[in-house]
Amino acid sequence: MTTDNLVKIDKLDKTDISLIILIAFCNLVFILFGISSLFTNIFDTFKQYILSDNKIYSIIFHVFIAGLIGGASYSLRALYQNIGHSVTPINQKYYRPLNIKVWFLWYFYRPLQGAVLAAIMICLFQHGFISLNTTNIETTESLYFQVGIGFLVGFGAHEVMGKIEEIIKVIFAKSNKKTNENSQDKVVSNSTN
Fold first, then answer.
1. What is the pLDDT of residues 16-53, one digit of tens each?
2. Rg of the chain on CA atoms, in Å
3. Residue 56 forms part of a structural domain
């Protein structure tokens, strides 16, 4: 085996290992909190106090928590993939150095980003800006729909941001007022000649 094919393996120091453990632990706590608040009665007193039997708050809460689970799942996935690519790469092509100190805050931000985006997306579903072929009021009130959409949005937050940008471009597009006025002037001048 030649030395050209050998891959440099990163040596993680104690700080890097501590940060990796902290990131993994916090994201696992996000996931466990989310699952226990959605599917058990552990936080029922809290939910009754916060939600106060309001259907809209309940939907947003479920979607927010599911988005938190999706974002934390993505964050953990990215963490172990980045560790794998830096510590045990298959070959030089897949090697990427792990700089956990630079990306540290992103691993905590991503679950919160997913949760907020999930809440925003369910509002867009409820008001008709985004729709699915099978979406109706009964569907969106289903806990399974709320958790499913919330998780997907949290996990795929990058793609969701692209969809939101498309919506913004459509809603807030510049008008072609000058183009319409110029074409009307031409029609009027042609009809008078």
1. 899 999 999 999 999 999 999 998 888 888 777 777 77
2. 24
3. yes
Does 61 or 126 have the greater pLDDT score? 61
* Count of domains observed in the chain: 1
Of the candidates 154, 130, 134, 137, the one whose C-alpha atom is nearest the C-alpha of residue 62 is: 154
The secondary structure element, H or E, covering residue 22 is: helix 14-39
CA 143 to chain centre: 19
Q: CA-CA distance, 154 to 115, in Å (whole number)?
A: 6
Q: Is residue 68 part of a domain?
A: yes
Helix, strand, coil tally for the chain in percent (to 5): 75, 0, 25
| pLDDT for the residue numbered 87 | 75
Q: CA–CA separation, 148 vs 67, rounded Å?
A: 9
**What are the backbone dihedrals phi and psi of residue 122, each rounded to the nearest 5 degrees, phi first?**
-65, -35
